Amino acid sequence: MSPCAKKFDIDAIPGERWFPKETSFEEDMQLYWGDWGVASEVDDLKAVLMRRPGKEIENFDYKEVRFKEPINVEKFRQQHDNLAQIYRDHGVKVYYVENQREDRPNALFMRDLIFMTPEGAIVTRPAMAARRGEERYVAEALAKIGVPIVRTINGGGTFEGAMGMWVDRHTVILATGCRTNRDGYEQVEYELRRMGVTDIIPMQIPYGHAHIDGLLNLASHDTAMIHASQVPYDVCDALKKKGIKLLEAPSQTEAKETLGVNFVAVKPGLVIQPEGNPRCKELLEKNGIEVISIDFSEILKGWGAIHCTTVFLKRG
């Protein structure tokens, strides 16, 4: 090269100027999405998602969808409205799924359609043909209010939200049975372990029952009620080792027919329970649990109660 040749100094390409924000999704939730997240069955209830019964209950064959008997449509809606009002009276924000298929009279049993986590909602895939498809409109409602969907159960998996129950931030009861297969179970387990759940308590739902919340429920951080003969010993043992007192529903009729175990804790030690469960109510109260009784007799015809109709969107 000639010593007189001109040399060019080419600027180096600048380095990265956009650096990642080193926070978790859970930490970002309130800033970017809203005040959502659940990791408890009893922490103070702040927001719920419900489906006020619409046209889907106005003309259906009750035998085809396994209701006990025909319903009084207006009474059915009024009892649902009464529950929503109790939530509001206790400072709980009530959101609704506005749209739904008109051939799905079970759609008010919202707990089956979502399992809420600290990072948002797992949208389920119902096992029964009579429920399949309701989840589409649940996803629509979640998107509308800004609740993130962390997973939709897919492939061959089936999972219903009442097959999961939070014990604490690191512990979840997860069940299989006619409403959840192993594929669906494993999809949910994967998400929970990714979120820091270290203790999965497996539960087998007995033939003839549907979900956990008809057999077991938490009324406070250290008190649960169980339908004793139907909850596996290993589940009871795991809860007792966590310091949880187990109250055995004293009436099999109340546990199975009037769903005395199917209550919702508004806060630790305060639950809403269907009327018609005097023995279960008395036992709860003797153990320091305050009980609000509500007439849910019409909705009970669909074999669901307070817990079944309520998706927790925010606790604590």
Automatic annotation (TrEMBL):
Domain of life per record: Bacteria
Gene3D superfamilies, per the entry: L-arginine/glycine Amidinotransferase, Chain A (3.75.10.10)
Pfam family, one: DDAH_eukar
Name assigned to this protein: Amidinotransferase
Source organism (scientific name): Lutispora saccharofermentans
Higher taxonomy: Bacteria, Bacillati, Bacillota, Clostridia, Lutisporales
